[in-house]
Design brief:
single chain, mainly alpha, 11 helices
Length: 312
């Protein structure tokens, strides 16, 4: 049950990107192409991993889990954003806003944990290759992914629950194309100091812990690779973790920029651009990065296409 602080505002108005009709149609065309590409790219990765037995390894289990996260992360905001670009009234209910916040924070937090686990997986593969199959078992990787989801959505539940206790009595305009936690928080007419403090503490915990694992893992990987005497050996070792490193840099880079940038009059526009990068562009780039730079993925795709042509 809601407390006596019952919200007067029952729905919010999303300002979106622009009020220019022609520009909205242009952005709709671009973003729907990107969203469809995101769906096709990540579903294709999942199908390849499921269909090719050679890809039934911990590394590709993590990659498949990342594809699921990218599908969820993108679908949290893109359908509503696309619908609003063609709608006269860009509204979202209070419950719909909380739901979007919950899944946005949940998928985002889970991705932090998952990228850290993928970094550790590459560390074991390169630094302790003889122990890899004994260390990174199927059971362990499954439990790790389950823990990542549990931790990510627990983190999201805490924040969403804290917003649920607040009152919103106006204004009701969200200067964004989606319900983003800091923007929604500022619309509350009750004191949200505790909420803001919890957001900073928990977000810092998730980011610092996962980033430490990534940095330490890649530090050991770099040391191990530099000890390899042949250039071919170093190149082969680097190729196994380059794709993951690019994805980590993109994801962490956007979030760190958003958290560390100074609060200026253009911060709302920057928030929108960073949100587009993290929820729209990164989910479509990840499949491209992994498929174009991964020989196993390209070989699996080649075999499946050959089988399809033979069947036809």
């Amino acid at each position: 049950m809601r407390p006596e602080n019952e919200s007067i505002v029952t729905e919010f108005i999303l300002s979106g990107f622009t009020t220019d009709k022609d520009l909205q149609v242009f952005l709709f065309t671009i973003f729907i192409l990107v969203y469809v590409s995101t769906l096709l790219g990540n579903v294709s990765i999942l199908m390849l991993i499921c269909m090719d037995l050679h890809l039934h390894t911990p590394m590709y289990f993590f990659l498949g889990s990342l594809a699921v996260l990218d599908l969820g992360f993108s679908s949290t905001s893109s359908p509503k954003m696309l619908a609003d670009m063609l709608a006269e009234k860009k509204t979202i209910s209070f419950f719909g806003c909380l739901t979007q916040l919950f899944f946005y924070a949940g998928f985002g937090s889970t991705e932090f944990f998952l990228l850290a686990m993928m970094a550790y997986d590459r560390y074991v593969a390169i630094c302790n290759p003889l122990l890899y199959t004994l260390t990174m078992t199927k059971s362990l990787t499954f439990h790790w992914v389950a823990i990542a989801y549990f931790g990510g959505f627990l983190h999201s539940l805490i924040h969403t629950g804290c917003i649920w206790r607040l009152s919103f009595c106006g204004p009701d305009i969200i200067d964004h194309f989606m319900c983003d936690y800091p923007v929604v928080l500022k619309l509350s007419c009750t004191d949200f100091t505790i909420n803001d403090l919890l957001r900073i503490v928990f977000a810092a915990f998730v980011m610092v812990i996962s980033l430490l694992i990534v940095v330490i893992s890649y530090a050991y990987i770099l040391i191990a690779v530099l000890r390899i005497r042949t250039s071919a050996g170093r190149s082969r070792a680097f190729s196994t973790c380059t794709s993951h490193f690019i994805c980590v840099s993109l994801f962490y880079g956007t979030v760190l920029f958003m958290e560390l940038r100074p609060n200026t009059t253009t911060s709302h526009e920057q928030d929108k651009m960073v949100a587009v990068l993290s929820t729209v562009l990164i989910p479509v780039l990840n499949p491209l990065i992994y498929s174009l730079r991964n020989q196993d993925m390209k070989e699996a795709l080649r075999k499946i296409l050959n089988q399809a042509f033979l069947f036809l």
